[in-house]
């Protein structure tokens, strides 16, 4: 063996032993190669390589899920007549939600955190560490739900799957917090790009939704991952599976009034959609039923809606394509409305019901036990609203109504208002329709809808509970690091306390023999009654003429704020900021005194994290 090959062998064995020292008994050759590369390439070079690998893997996951669901729908919808489809519409959506719930309960042990909120939670609360189970669990659950007719989208599960792939790749090669977050976002970006065949929209999604408040100078891995995901989607998916629209009109500035009115309509509808989602979620969560009974109830309600209005079945993208072609008769022929003869008002009534009930169908699907997201429902509702708006304009005798364009920009409008993501919506529709000349109407409608949404609520109401709990942030700096702090380590459990009925002289002994400058005043059951600092007792220490109070109870003060063990980092820091205190007492779940937490220690820990993750 020559010297060069011998050096390669030694290097190979070195990294194999290093991997095994981390508990990885079964080491694959490609892992050794990548680990070796991670130590030989520069940081930027390895991140670009990582973006390619994560993007391809997440893109393949997206292609797999889209293909699987497409073939299930193809079998149900195209192989039988409407009279037979009624049976499928009445049974399959019900089975989809119930089976998904059973899988979650018995296979994944009840762990069903889903949607974009799941990614934001992992970024903020878990240092971008996502369970490896999510690399496949979301595919299984959403394929069952949406494949069998759940009125939700596949894009959020694909994004969560991609995020899990990126996070676990970073964990395998022991990358830091910033690199791990970047690759998590790259995986989600690739997933969105493959789902819509829209790489720019995937990048916008990452910056506009996932990385809000996280400042990155690196963005090339996101772009590379998006391109890889989109390319795989374009190469592997059949034309009828792709999210693409080929029918549209050229932009005419004379049609701007149509877009202005549609922007207002989508803004109001987006608010309606979000409101219905929140109400249905609240109603289902408050039901005194088991998880399985909720699934049965939700599945039955969804099946009824799908029988009444078949376009509510599944994602609804095929219906959107029919709308852009401007053929209303095809949309209602496979429904009970096809038997009505109300002239042009039949399709208008049909579309009004779809718009009103789509919000219920999607929220029932997601919150009663199914798995899916609001990407597809918001796009479907927006396209339907745009088509309805165009038909009403024609019904009142208006000429040259750009029907196809109104369907497309309607999709962008509702998505922008529902997800609070105008840039993602604009680029998504522009890319999927190759309608770059539609940027002006897309911007008009998406921005109006977004501004109206912000007028109703400054932040997305769907994310508001997570913001209130400190799980996600809206500030410009990297606040996610705050929740990486292990606050338990900042609590001084050796804090000194004194009984409330003790004489003040006992406190003097504590000060003389101890090193603390703040003391807890307790009752006999260790319940906190008040606090004392050196400043509070200084007049009695150095003024011998000062008459001593009868007991500690007479001079103790009420603490400016109380911290509980289950408080998150953001809430604790907010209490320090509001009170101006440097020490606050900590109580457990039984309201017993635990110790004091120090603001200076938290700030020191935060500075150390900044150094570690910089």
Sequence-ordered SSE layout with sheet pairings:
Layout: H1 3-21, H2 29-40, H3 43-78, H4 82-106, H5 116-125, H6 134-147, H7 155-172, H8 177-196, H9 199-210, H10 220-236, H11 256-286, H12 291-308, H13 317-324, H14 328-332, H15 344-367, H16 375-395, H17 403-419, H18 422-433, H19 439-456, H20 464-468, E1 491-492, E2 497-499, H21 504-513, E3 518-522, E4 528-533, H22 534-542, E5 563-564, H23 569-579, E6 583-587, E7 593-598, H24 599-613
Parallel strand pairs: 2-3, 5-6
Antiparallel strand pairs: 1-7, 3-4, 6-7
Oligomeric state of the chains in view: single chain
Average pLDDT for all residues: 80
Structural class category: mainly alpha
Count of DSSP H/I helices: 24
The number of domains: 3
At CATH level 3, the topology of the largest domain is: Clc chloride channel
What is the CATH top level name of the largest domain? Mainly Alpha
Low-pLDDT runs of 5+ residues are 1-13, 18-25, 474-478
Order of the strands making up the biggest sheet: 1-7-6-5
* Helical proportion, percent range: 55-70%
Mind describing the biggest β-sheet? 4 strands, mixed
Shape: elongated
Name of the CATH architecture of the largest domain: Orthogonal Bundle
Strand content: under 5%
Distance separating the two termini: 43 Å
Q: Measured on Cα atoms, how large is the radius of gyration?
A: 29 Å
Protein model, in words:
GO terms for molecular function: chloride channel activity. Residues 491-550, 556-612 form the CBS domain. Its main location: membrane. Keywords: CBS domain, Chloride, Chloride channel, Ion channel, Ion transport, Membrane, Transmembrane, Transmembrane helix, Transport. This is CIC family chloride channel protein. By secondary structure, the protein is mainly alpha-helical. The protein has three domains: 22-236, Clc chloride channel (Orthogonal Bundle); 253-474, Clc chloride channel; 485-613, Roll (CBS-domain), CATH 3.10.580. The chain is 63% helix and 5% strand. The protein is built from 24 helices and seven strands. The strands form two sheets. Strands 1-7-6-5 form a four-stranded mixed beta sheet. α23 links the parallel β5 and β6 (583-587). α3 (43-78) runs parallel beside α6 and α11 crosses α16. The radius of gyration is 29 Å and the shape is elongated. The two termini are 43 Å apart.
